[in-house]
Every structure is written in structure tokens, then in C-alpha cells.
Amino acid sequence: MTDTQRRTAIGPDAGSAAPTPRRRRRLRRLTKRDRVLLIVLLGIPLLADLAFVWFPAVTSVVLSFTSWNGVGAIQPWVGTQEYKFAFTVDPQFWPAVLHNVIWILVFGLIATPLGMLIAVILDRNLKGSRIYQSVFFMPVMLSLALIGIIWELMYSQNFGLINTLLGRTGGDAINWIGNPNLNLGAVLVAASWRQVGYVMILYLAGLKGVDTSLREAAQIDGANPWQTFWRVIFPVLKPINVVIIVITVIESLRAYDIIYIMSHGTVLPGLELLSMLVTQYIIGQTTRIGYGSALATVLLVISLVPIIIFLVQSFRKEDKA
Amino acid sequence: MTTLSSTQASAAARSSSGKRRAGGVRPGRIAAHTFMIIMAVAWILPLLFALYISLRPISSTAKYGYVSLPIGGLTFANYVAAWSQGEIGHYLINSAIITIPAVIITLLFASAVGFVVAQVKLRGRLVLLIIFTAGNLLPQQALITPLYRIFLSIPLPSWLSSSGLMYDSLFGLIVINVTFQLGFCVFVLSNYMTTIPGDIYEAALVDGAGLWTRFWSITLPICRPALAALGTLLTIWIYNDFFWATVLMSTGSKRPITSALNNLQGQFVSNQNVIAAAALIAAVPTLIVYLVLQRQFVAGLALGATKG
What we know:
heterodimer, A: about 325 residues, mainly alpha, MetI-like fold, 15 helices, B: about 300 residues, 2 domains
């Protein structure tokens, strides 16, 4: 096999200026059969990912500039009209954005610190910490649909545990899911029930990996546990913190199952979320592909923020290498 | 506040004899225990409440409410009703038909990509990794509109899908679960495989081992712990999927259990006790994993997070 043949088969990188000797050696060892295999190993998963994840994502953006109703040819091209409708006319849009933001804030400012606190306490080898850990971890494994059903029982107007404890089961019973001022908070309590355990388990994994000598050194220097954590341990946990930020935002944007179950498939006032609106316009009564795509694009753009943060943190080091 | 500090003080006095624990001030430990016990009770309460409701006859709860003594006794009748009228078994089988192949294929694909990225050292591997990793982080709803149309336009042979389409087929759900979970697994496995020392491959190369041998006989066995952890994680995640099955499947009876819970909610709208029972039956596979493979599950999460 000639050198040129090898280069074309391997792709653009073989022509790069100065391949390291090590890489040369590796590539030379690939026989023709191996190259076919390489293409199969990489090609099928890549094709699947491009076809069913990236193609739809890009198409969402394209469709958002149309007002396609799902029937016939994709037309007409309307520019940013659907976005204008969302920003200025649709009464559900801004509430949905607000609720998504509230979701992120509750996850970020309440569920995450609580999960972190529990992880820190458990990491200090409290007696029975395995039992505690199992208890907090349990909801993490349950589906959000299931969590919705379990919490519906808690919030049940006439029979529920919460109204019973509050002594409000009679005529003044609180309608936790129906009341637009209360339902988002009620759902967020249920969602946090799972999120706290999720955050806890991630921080526990991170804390286990912290070098014990760091902590000892801090104690020798006279730092109290509070200072030790915030000045020494927390900075070391930076990779975990980034993961938590990403999970917090992504999970908040994806929130769907639990709302769908608790509001029985409809978009209830007070529980509008971008994810709920998107699906409403493609499988709901009125098919508005163009508008649904515009909402999906808004969702996509917001989600790019944590995604980019994560990618930068994960791959910066490799880029240099 | 005063009661708290007095209990702390007395507890501290009580435990002053036992000095086995070095770290932490003792009142702090008591406070920690108090906090944890209260939290743990609060955390377990919703589950116990659901369990209690599922074991009580509807006649009793309708009369006395959920929060009452078990007047009328405890019964498995709700579970029987959920199983026979709700056809839970049928939905569980659907879940198995989707979850088992999806987990295996995802692991296979992800190992293949991870292997290529980590060991073949192609230029552009960073771009590949970013494509997979970022793809997994997109919100499903950002893809669903075109995806829904794509699924509607892909024909499948009738032995694969009774609808004749990718839409509304178990096969379609396997495909989307695999592709969507692929990214995370590629990310984890390529990281894992990069840590495999090169010497192992050098030795094999001397023996004339091809790419396949290096992948199948050397890399995969080394990755067994990561594969086990990811497999556990994927099983739970795919089993718990609600969104894909709700949107990409229209026939209720074909749905896997998690999304079928929504149908059951409609079917037993006047009998929450049966719904509670159905939900808890749906949680049984999860509970088995929780009891038997919790360590693997946590390891899987940790692999994704600590390496990030």
C-alpha cells in the first residue's frame, strides 16, 4: 500500500504538518480490514446521533422561521413572525419563561444547597449514614412520572397528608394543583424531593475523591470546619460544581413528566413551561409546527449556555494536549 | 431555641464518656443527627403514604380519608385490580422489550465510539466527542417537533412495527432511547478508555492483534466495571422514560409502563388507591435495582460527574 492511499483512507489528519512518531506508528498498523471496521464502529453510532439528535435540533431552528401547520409542503417562510407572536401576543409565553426561571432558581438555590449540606454531613461518617444516604437516594431512581403520582396523593385536596396536617380538609381545603398561585411551588417541592438526592449523591462522589491531607492541613492551620469546607474543599470540587450547574439548568428546562402527570396532560394556568408549550403545538389540538419550533428554539438557545460551560470545562485540557 | 440548646447540652454530657470520634464538636454532631433524622423522616413519608393508601380498600379511604387508622383492614385488592384491570404485566413486558435491547445497543455503540476516540487517536476526535456529549444535553423538547415528523415518515416492515411506521412502534422507541443516551455513555467510556495504559495494546500488537481484537478482547473486558455501572444507570433511565413514549407513541397498549401510568391515571380516575398500587408495582423493577445494584448506579453517576 502506498503512502498516498493510506493518507486518503485515513482522512484529513494524515496530511497534517507534523504527525508525532507515535501516531504514525498507530496508523500504519491499521489494515484495510481494520479501516472498514473503524468506519462501522464509528459510522453507525455517529449517523444515528446526527440523524435523530442533531438533524432534528437544526431543523427545529429552520422550521421556526416558517408558519407551517404540518400539512403539505413546508411553507410559507415568515421570518421572525412566530417569535414576535411569542414575545408580544402569546399570553402563555412569558409565564412559561418565568416558570422555567423559577424552576432553575429553586433547584439552584434550595435543592442544590440542601443536597450539598446532606452530602457534607454524610461525608463526616455520621452513625447510620448509609441508611440516611439510601433514604435520600431512593427518589433519584424513581421516574418523575411516578413521583408526580406519589405527590398527587400528598396534595390530594380532601384526603391528602398535607391538607390533613394543615387541618384544611373541609370546605376550605387547599387546591394545591388547581390554584395557579400555589401549583408551581407544590410541583417544585415534589421535583426537589428527587433533585436533592441527585445533588447529594454527586457531591458525595466528589467529596470521597478529595485528598484527606488537604483537610488535615487546613485543620492544622487552625481552620474551622466551615472555613475548611468553603476555602479548601469547595474549590477542589469545581468539576462537580460545574456538573451540578449543568444538571440544574438542563433538568429545569426538560421538566415535563411530573407536570404532565400532575396536571393530567393539560397546560394548567400557573404550570406553563416551555417544554409543555412545545409539545402542545405538535401533538395538541392545533398543530402549529412553525410556532412550536420557535418555542423549541428558545429552549435550545437557553440550553446552549450550560452546554457550552460544560464542554469548555470538560475538553479544555484535552485541547491543549 | 432554648429547648434545642438544652437538649444539645444534655446530650453532650451524656456522650462525654465515649470519645471514639475525633472529628467534629459533639453538639454539632447532635445537631447533625437531629437534622438528618427529621429530613429522612420527611423524605420517606411520601413513599410510605403511597404504600399505605395502596393497601387500603377504597371504601375505607373514601369514608375516613387517607390519613386515618386502617379501618376496614389492609388488603392487596388494589394490587390485584391494578394487575388484572390495569394490565400492568403487559406494560412491564413492553418496558422490557424496549429497555433491554436499548441498554445493550447503547453500551455497544458507545464502547465502539469511545474506543475509536480514545485509542485510535483520529484527528477531529474532539469534535466527535463534542457532537455526542452536547447532543445528550439538549432538552428533548428542542428536538421533538422535527423528530415527530421524521418518525411519521420512516416506514418499517410490518414485523417490526404494526403501524408500518417508526412512529408508534417499540422499535422507534428503542432507536430514540439509544441515540439520546449514547452521548453520555460515549463521554464516560472514552474518558475511561483513555486511562487504559498503552502497554497493554503494544503487547497485543506484537502478537498481530487487529483492531477488532483490541476492541472486543482487550478493551471491553477492561471496561467491565464502567459498563456495569453505565448499564445499571441506563436501565433506570430508559425504564423511567416518559417523554419519548408519550409523544412518539399513540397506541396506549403499546406504551411502556412509565408512560402508561398516565393512561392508568385516566382509567382509575375515581380510585386513587388502585393508582397508588399501580405506581408502586411500576416501581418494583426500580426497587430491585435500588436494593441490588445501588452501588453500580451511584458508580455510574460518579463516573459521569467526577471525570467531567
